[in-house]
Amino acid sequence: MPGANLGTRFAVFEAVHGSAPDIAGKGIANPIAVIRSAALLLEHVGHGAAGARIERAVIKTLQAGVGLTGDIGGTGTTATITDQIIKNLGA
């Protein structure tokens, strides 16, 4: 789940579930929340089209089901799902 903490001067965008240090370096973390948080940041700073493009790439990746991490029913890694999202940015 992506998250945004908006203040009067500053904003922080992050995955609301935390950083998951227990699985760091194992290649099993699902990066979607962080990627979607980046999309929120882009929208916040006036680049809504870029943020929407990221959101569409994430949705397309989930619909295709290729490279998904284990927590969402796949057998892929952090790298494989990220690669699929990047690939779908151009689609």
What's the average pLDDT? 95
Q: Rounded to an integer, what's the Rg over CA atoms?
A: 14 Å
Q: What's the story with the biggest beta sheet?
A: 2 strands, antiparallel
- Helix segment tally: 3
The neighbouring-strand order within the major sheet is: 1-2
Give the strand tally.
2
Low-confidence stretches: none
Report the structural category.
Answer: mainly alpha
- In the residues, how many domains can be counted? 1
Shape: flat
Q: Kindly report how far apart the N and C termini lie.
A: 24 Å
Assembly state of the chains shown: single chain
**What portion of the residues fall into strands of 2 or more residues?**
5-15%
Helix content: 40-55%
- The succession of helices and strands, N to C, reads EEHHH
What is this entry, summarized?
With 91 residues, this protein is mainly α.
Question: Can you characterise this structure?
Answer:
The chain has one domain. It is 46% helix and 11% strand. The chain is built from three helices and two strands. It has helices at 32-44, 48-64, 78-89; strands at residues 2-6, 11-15. A two-stranded antiparallel ribbon has the order 1-2. Strand 1 and strand 2 (11-15) form a beta hairpin. Helix 1 packs antiparallel against helix 2 (48-64) and helix 2 crosses helix 3 (78-89). The protein is flat.
Write the layout of secondary structure elements.
Layout: E1 2-6, E2 11-15, H1 32-44, H2 48-64, H3 78-89
Helix pairs in contact: 1-2, 2-3
Index terms:
46% helix; mainly alpha; two-stranded antiparallel sheet; 3 helices; 91 residues; flat
